[in-house]
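User: Assemble these into one structure.

Assistant: Restating your components, then the assembled model:
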Amino acid sequence: MKLSTKGRYGLRAMVDLGIHSEQEPVSISSIAARQQISDRYLEQLIGKLKKAGLVSSVRGAQGGYQLARDPGEISAGDILRVLEGDLMSVTCDGDGDGDTPCCEVSDYCVTRYVWQKVHEGIIAAVDNLTLAELIEQSKGMHGGC
Amino acid sequence: MKLSTKGRYGLRAMVDLGIHSEQEPVSISSIAARQQISDRYLEQLIGKLKKAGLVSSVRGAQGGYQLARDPGEISAGDILRVLEGDLMSVTCDGDGDGDTPCCEVSDYCVTRYVWQKVHEGIIAAVDNLTLAELIEQSKGMHGGC
DNA sequence: GCAAACCCCACTAAATTGCTAGGATTTCCA
DNA sequence: TGGAAATCCTAGCAATTTAGTGGGGTTTGC
């Protein structure tokens, strides 16, 4: 139960875009260099973010990526959902093929109950956190941690 | 970012123990049969829970497991932390070997910031949820979901 | 026209997950 | 006193996921 590099890199890339792409599009290679990430790998992650409509692209030379919306209109949850899949989707222990009802085994709905609670906690946290806020945070700390 | 069977099975096993082990210890095989879980696998999970001090064991014939503490004194978070590892541990993207400071790359502390928020949300959810509450939930629903 | 960039898909080594297997040890009970 | 029932311990293994790498294409500014 941990955040993979997909989510971590994606958050950093989006913050980077927010800071550097206001005037002109930013290339994968420049983000990768600043963030010290494999550019081939980052390319795939940003591809997903583009398909999800969070970033827009400009093809050809001097092209690159830009945020598709205002940073205030993008939440950390939006980014993480794209890259990490459903954030703690609430599933039963049933096989989920639709044939069997969700809960034929005694008392395993506790899982569902717990997960509902956890899910609510996560969603509340990441959906109320805008990219704008993260960018502000990031600008605030120069080198220090 | 999902709950593995470890956490799901562990929660169900603990609820099962809470319901059935008040008088006498309960064997792995009976829990596994009721919960429809591989007993060999469950054995390993309960082993961890024992090492963590959440359940106690009685060896030999007619032995088995019991809750080590009152269900009101065990939280869902306690169980999940044992089986799923740190719940969203807040780590930087630094290599974490202690040699390099946490944040030598520009602005990746946003990861840390986001994760702090998510972590708080999760902890608040699972640590305020007692096993007693889950047992009550479980008893409340007979077959229904 | 050519280089810089995005785009797309396939492959792979390493780690994790969800088990299975084979025992050894302890203890109740007939 | 001899099983049988149970916990304990460690190792292995197939399937999946992760974190990339690789080899191309296509679009576009200069």
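Chain A touches chain B through 58 residues (CB under 8 Å).
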